[in-house]
Every structure is written in structure tokens, then in C-alpha cells.
Amino acid sequence: MGHLDTLYRGALRLTRDPAQAEDLVQDTYVRALRYQHSYQEGTNMKAWLFAIMRNLFWDRFKGRWLRGTEFHYPERPANLPSLKPLQNWPKFNPRDTR
Predict the structure, then answer these.
(1) Among 27, 28, 23, which Cα is nearest to 49's?
(2) Could you state, in chain order, the average pLDDT of each consecutive group of 10 residues for the chain (98 residues)?
């Protein structure tokens, strides 16, 4: 369980919901235990766990997308600045920097 905090932070970035993040981490560890025979000694365990977590997340996302269900992200806090002023900025063209 050495990577629990790191996995939780990653899951929170993916799900944007603490309860779903906890479920995702728990399911990641369950799947890792089930398939521990496929882990190769000497490889990066954290990367292996993140791959499992990413695949679990995408499986859930794909299933919800196919059923037409959307993810419910928390509302945007009112104290964040608006992005509307950025829409009026000129478009960046890399050719202009030559």
C-alpha cells in the first residue's frame, strides 16, 4: 500500500469526485491482487498500478458514454476568474515567430 496517496491523487484528477476516487483506488488494489501473478519483478510497481487504474477508469467512462450517462463534475467555484477575457486574445501562429 506504499502508493496509496499517489494513486488517490491520480484518481481524484481523473474522477474529480472524492468518493469515486476512493472507489477507483480500492478497485485498483483489488485488481492488482487478483492479477499479481502478471507483475514482473524489478519493474515499476507504481506505473503498473497506474496502468490498472487508468484502464479501470476508461472502462467505466466508456460504459457510461455508451449508455449515454454523463459524469457529474462538481460545480465551478464562483471565486475563480472568468475565462472570457482570454477568448479575445489573438490566436497564436507559430509561423509568426520566424
Answers:
(1) 28
(2) 85 89 92 88 91 91 62 60 56 59
Cα–Cα distance, 86 to 79 (Å, whole number): 17
Nearest to 35 by CA among 48, 22, 44: 48
Domain 4-67 architecture: Orthogonal Bundle (1.10)
Task: Give the separation between CA 82 and CA 90, rounded to whole angstroms.
Answer: 17
Q: Virtual CA dihedral for 1, 44, 63, 74, nearest 10 degrees? A: 60
Q: Where are the domains of the chain?
A: 4-67
CA distance 65 to 45: 30
- pTM more than 0.70: no
